[in-house]
């Protein structure tokens, strides 16, 4: 699995299993500007799971106890993945800030792309008509000069 970009933070989180008994399993977590990667048993050598920020909708802080912060990552297909971290580790805040940064950069890129498309469409629409007007003005200037 590739981990694009610079590592923002690396450490341990607990993920609630999807099984019937819903045990908390420790995961090695690597946070980058583009994704959150989860590795089983605390080893990067093992095959991990990458949650790209393009597929994450939001991070919800569910509960704060004296010992843990419980939070949920909601994906764009509405899947919920539950995590917990020690209260002082602030993993939920780190993930939230990286996600917001990613979403802001993507929104700016989308805006610029939309602006470029609109400008290109406007110049195509004005292009032939503007060219015809310039050639007509040139013909008039030539006729005036010859008279």
Automatic annotation (TrEMBL):
Keywords: Cytoplasm, Membrane. SMART domains: PH (SM00233). Residues 120-130 have a biased composition (Low complexity). The keyword Coiled coil does not apply. InterPro entries: PH-like_dom_sf, PH_domain, PHLA1/2/3. GO terms for biological process: animal organ morphogenesis; positive regulation of apoptotic process; regulation of cell migration; regulation of embryonic development; regulation of gene expression; regulation of glycogen metabolic process. It comes from the Eukaryota. SUPFAM superfamilies: PH domain-like. Its main location: cytoplasm. GO terms for molecular function: phosphatidylinositol phosphate binding. It is found in: Cytoplasm; Membrane. Residues 119-147 are annotated as: Disordered. The keyword Cytoplasm applies. It holds the Pfam family PH. GO terms for cellular component: cytoplasm; membrane. PROSITE patterns: PH_DOMAIN (PS50003). Residues 6-147 form the PH domain. It is a peripheral membrane protein. Plays a role in regulating placenta growth. May act via its PH domain that competes with other PH domain-containing proteins, thereby preventing their binding to membrane lipids. This is Pleckstrin homology-like domain family A member 2. It comes from Terrapene triunguis. The gene is PHLDA2.
